[in-house]
Structure formats: structure tokens, C-alpha cells
Amino acid sequence: QAKSRGRNRYSHYLPCLTTAARERFELERSLRRAIAQEELSLVFQPLVELPAQRVVGAEVLLRWHSAEHGDVSPVRFIPLAEDSGLIVPIGAWVLHQACRQGRLWLDQGLPLETLAVNLSPVQFMHHDVVALVREALAHSGFPAHALELEITEGALVQQVARATDTLKALCDMGVRVSVDDFGTGYSSLAYLRRFALHKLKIDRSFMQGVPVERAESGLVQGILDLGHKLGMCVLAEGVEQQAQLDWLVAAGCDQIQGYLISRPLPAQDYVEWWTARLSELRAD
Ligand code: C2E
Ligand code: MG
Ligand code: MG
Ligand code: MG
Asked: What ipTM was estimated for this complex?
């Protein structure tokens, strides 16, 4: 009886597995052609300095509109790109494209101080990121001091010696490095002292309870204090409500990013958004 139940379960689950596997395979096949088919694009989410809410720049986020699959979220296709190695050409494309766009904006007189680009741990650990960054800066003429690279904690603690060398080389070039999704990765904080890191980005999952939940607000306050004691800039991700912003100002948070300020925007909309904001400020 147990056996028949087992077989039953097996026949029930197998088609699901193969469907998922097939979907994954087809998604990967489409992703392989995405650059050449010009299906990838960048959007830009404003980064705002507190307390005055001055715009300092933007985080670059990748979008994929697939002819076969429609809009696919990076939450879905980035892991696929990492597993298949496609993240290497895709990540290179993002960096080159971002630097080109940044250079254009500087030439147009937009006071862009920070362009933040996400780097996959796969890129960071297994490929010559330093050469890639140097190339993207040289090709575009985008200044190193305006480029910020976002990496997750995991990328730093897996191969410490290599990470140290990479971070040192980036730092020597004048590029800043920030820790993305801070608080969701490894628990050892020793790496914060070892590496030259510019910024902590508090993961947006922590913002949900701010300011109502005492425990979560306490965690965010703790991260702010920790970052500041180490001489780092601290940014809160995923700010959606005015009450959160008010609390973060009082708590001494340096920068925020989130739907309250703006959703990620295509390049043209980003310029319009910023221009409107600058003239609003002048009118005040
Ligand atoms: P991330 O780097 O932590 O980026 C922030 C994510 O939070 C973005 O999602 C952004 O749209 C979203 N977000 C921003 N403000 C809010 C808010 O107020 N509320 C909510 N609910 N969400 C908010 P997105 O664009 O879907 O990207 C997801 C993740 O995919 C990124 O998380 C990053 O890890 C990865 N990713 C995106 N673009 C790239 C890329 O070019 N390269 C690599 N390696 N990863 C990327
Ligand atoms: Mg990021
Ligand atoms: Mg983040
Ligand atoms: Mg995040």
C-alpha cells in the first residue's frame, strides 16, 4: 500500500518537475539571445540624501522584456543567469551601458554623484571584475569616483584573500563598493572591518516594521550606529511611507531609496523626474 501511494505521489510530481525544468530551459535559451535581440534595458531608481532629500544619483536595475516570455523579473532571471554563466556577458553589458548613460548625463549637466551598479557574486569571485570595471570606465569616460558597485555579503566572505585584492584594486581606482541587502546574509561582521567598504544598504525587509515595531526599528537603528561607528554611509532600501522617512531622518540615516521617492525609471523618465524635482526645489 505504501508502495502504491509512493508511486502515486511520484507520478503526480514528475510532470510538475519536468514542466518547471522545461520552463527553466526555455527561459535560459531566450536569455542567451536577450542581449543580441536588444531585449535588455536599464532602469534607474533615485538615491536621496537625508535630511534634505537631495538626489545624489541612482541605482541601475536590469529589465528584461522577452519576446517569448514577456516581462521577466530580475528576481527570476538573475539566478538563472548566474547558474548558466550568462551573468558574465550580461553583467558586462550592464556595466558598460550604465557608464555610457552616466557619461551622457554628466555631459548634459546633470549633477550625478553616484551611479550604483549591482555586481553578482559570480562575477565578483570568478571573473576579472577589476579589468571589466577599468574597461567600462575607459570606454565611456565615466569618472571612477561616481561609480559605486553593490555586492552582497556572501561575495565578500567566500574567498577572503581574493575579495581583499579585488576591493583594494577597485579602491585604488577610486571606485566605491557598498554592501547590498545588508543584514540578510552572513552573520559574521568581521569582514566589515577587514574591507574598505563605503556604504551599507539595509535590506528592505527590515523597513517593513519601521517605525511601528520596536524590535525592527531597533535593528535598523543598530545597523545605522554600527555603520557610522565604522565610518560608513548607511542607506535604507524599500522606503515606502512618509512615517518611515521621518523616523529615518530622526535616526540619522544618510540616504534612502524606495517607492516613496520614486520607482525605478527608464533613462528618459529619470531625467524628467530629476529636472522637475530640481525646479521644485528652486521654487521653494
Ligand atoms: P537590489 O539590488 O536589492 O535592488 C533593489 C530592489 O528593490 C529592486 O528590485 C527595486 O525595484 C526594489 N525596490 C526599490 N524600492 C522599493 C520599495 O520601496 N518597495 C519594494 N517593494 N521594492 C522596492 P528589482 O529591480 O526587481 O531587482 C531585484 C534584484 O535583482 C536586485 O535587488 C538585485 O539583486 C538583482 N538585480 C537587478 N538588476 C541587476 C543587475 O544589473 N545585476 C545583478 N547582478 N543583479 C541585479
Ligand atoms: Mg542593489
Ligand atoms: Mg539592495
Ligand atoms: Mg534588496
From this structure: 0.98
Pocket test for ligand 1, best of 61, 115, 151, 204 (most atoms within 8 A of CB): 61
Ligand nearest to the CA of 204: 4
Any ligand 1 atom below 6 A from CB of 62: yes
The 10s digit of each residue's pLDDT in 192-211 is: 888 889 999 999 999 999 99
Does the structure show a pLDDT above 70 at 8? Answer: no
**pTM attached to this predicted model:** 0.93
75 Cα–ligand 2 center, Å: 12
Which cell goes with 256? 534612502
Q: Which ligand is nearest to the CA of 78?
A: 1
User: Buried (b) or exposed (e) across 158-189, using 16+ Cβ within 10 A?
Assistant: eeeeebeebbebbeeeebbbbbbbbbebeeee
What gap in Å lies between CA 182 and CA 14, rounded to an integer? 38
Of residues 53, 51, 58, 52, the one with CA closest to residue 110: 58
8 Å CB contact between 86 and 31: yes
Q: What is the Cα–Cα distance from 167 to 133, expressed in whole angstroms? A: 12
Q: Report the alpha-carbon distance of residue 86 to residue 222 in Å, rounded.
A: 38
